[in-house]
TrEMBL record, chain A:
CDD domains, A to Z: Sigma70_r4
Domain of life: Bacteria
PANTHER family, sorted: RNA POLYMERASE ECF-TYPE SIGMA FACTO (PTHR43133), RNA POLYMERASE SIGMA FACTOR (PTHR43133:SF51)
Record keywords, A-Z: Sigma factor, Transcription, Transcription regulation
UniProt protein name: RNA polymerase sigma factor
Family (UniProt): Belongs to the sigma-70 factor family. ECF subfamily.
Automatic annotation (TrEMBL), chain B:
Protein name in UniProt: Uncharacterized protein
UniProt entry keywords in alphabetical sequence: Membrane, Transmembrane, Transmembrane helix
Residue ranges of the TM segments: 74-96, 111-128
Length: 188, 139
């Protein structure tokens, strides 16, 4: 029995301290996922709390079939998606495999925005926030949490091929936006 | 580096980054440089964090909801028992072969005041427990 399995078994037997340890171990992962999906900063902590309450309730159903981090990430993803479905009008369904190369609402970077952000990093983060939910989630899980395509697929319920496709497409969109920004900088 | 398409370039950069090699030099291709900048930013931890004591707050929340759930279950059991009581009376009547239902109730009439007193006492204990004890334990 590995450390994680032991921890889960202790929690199921009612050890509250063990659950606190689990929360401390995975709060960063949950925060990154929720933070990328939910834009209202004041609600992020509430959604994270909701995620961990759900994790606790469903822990007896966890069968160690996947990594615990992937299982928690899938709960975080669904909870955050449900939250934005309830509170905003942001579309949460993904693009098709042959979906648009440009994003809705006239693409990523418009000239006004390019003038607004003096710093390319701030500009880039603003563009990331404009990406569709699935793209943002995949970028976070891949780059920040270093999950594999398979693990991201398990967490988001998307096929591995789609995960790879979305990841490459998202980065390409960001590259094109950044290129336009840098070109516009030369003319200022 | 030769002119490559975006997917190949990204896959190559992924591989290089995984190996801990960042292929940036003054003569680096512009496209590659942009991708590397994006990769670096995506791997940077965001500045936002959860409040101090978040894990303790989660555990407290779980404990509170567990108490509520246990109470709810206890009330459900109590309600079920109350429902069972008339059924038990009818069953007793059948066992003792008393054909008159009213006679059973008349027999209960003798103990109505002690029964009512016990019932009220139980309600009072529950109320006092909720009002004075639990509220102090979970402010």
């Amino acid at each position: 029995m590995n450390d994680e399995e032991g921890l889960v078994r202790r929690i199921i037997l009612g050890d509250v301290r063990a659950y606190q340890t689990l929360v401390e171990r995975y709060q960063r992962l949950v925060l990154h996922m929720v933070g990328r999906i939910v834009h209202q900063s004041e609600d992020i902590e509430d959604v994270c709390q909701e995620v961990f309450i759900k994790v606790y309730r469903h822990l007896p159903d966890y069968k160690f079939g996947s990594k615990l981090s992937t299982w928690i990430a899938s709960i975080a993803y669904r909870t955050a998606i449900n939250y934005i479905k309830k509170t905003s009008r942001e579309p949460v369904s993904g693009f098709s495999e042959q979906g648009p190369e440009e994003l809705p609402n006239s693409g990523l970077a418009n000239p006004e925005e390019m003038l607004m952000h003096q710093d390319w990093k701030a500009f880039l983060h603003a563009q990331i926030d404009k990406l569709p939910v699935q793209y943002r989630t995949i970028l976070t899980l891949y780059h920040l949490e270093e999950l594999s395509y398979e693990e991201i697929g398990q967490a988001t319920g998307l096929p591995e091929g789609t995960v790879k496709n979305y990841l490459f497409r998202a980065r390409k969109l960001l590259k094109e936006a950044l290129l336009r920004y840098k070109n516009s900088e030369q003319w200022r | 580096m030769k002119e490559e398409n975006d997917d190949e370039l990204q896959a190559w950069l992924d591989e290089q980054n995984r190996l801990g090699q960042k292929p940036l030099s003054p003569e680096t291709d512009e496209k590659l440089r942009l991708y590397q900048q994006i990769f670096d930013e995506l791997s940077t931890e965001p500045p936002v964090g959860l409040s101090y004591g978040f894990s303790a707050a989660v555990v407290r929340q779980i404990q509170k909801s567990d108490v509520v759930r246990r109470e709810r279950r206890a009330y459900a059991v109590l309600g079920f028992c109350l429902l069972l009581m008339p059924l038990a009376a009818l069953a007793m009547q059948a066992v003792f072969r008393n054909p008159d239902l009213m006679e059973t109730f008349r027999a209960l009439d003798v103990v109505k005041f002690p029964a009512l007193f016990i019932l009220l006492l139980l309600v009072l204990i529950q109320w006092a427990d909720r009002r004075f004890v639990k509220r102090k334990l979970n402010p």
